[in-house]
What does this fold into?
Amino acid sequence: MIVRSFIFIFTAMSLVCCTTGSKFGQSPKDQAEVNTTVFSLAETLRGIPSVIVSGPPGSYNVRVTSSRDSRQSPLFIVNGQYAMSFRDATLLLAGKEIMTAELLPDLESDGYGRRGQGGVIVIQAN
It folds into this structure.
């Protein structure tokens, strides 16, 4: 009986999470802040030569055409922290203003090994 109740509650909570599009403990204000950050980062990256941002909002695909492996997602470094995807970068940027974003040249991105083969984008925010 306890196990069935737990499964029902867990399923109901998952259903609510999926239908509202938000995460547990995340207010509508927090969700709006994340959406603004996603749009801001996408627009900033579009301004960098050799960086292509494609796909619908919420599931952007970022590629660097001048990298050694343009099929691989670039490594994002946000205020010194590594982010392996666009989504991870937006989570690190939530509530912050992007000051600069730059694509490292291939010679510098070689220092990041396999993670940097898709390019390295360094972002500074406050």
Summary: The mean pLDDT is 79. Residues 72 and 118 are 5 Å apart (CA to CA). The chain has one domain: 27-125. The chain has four helices and six strands.
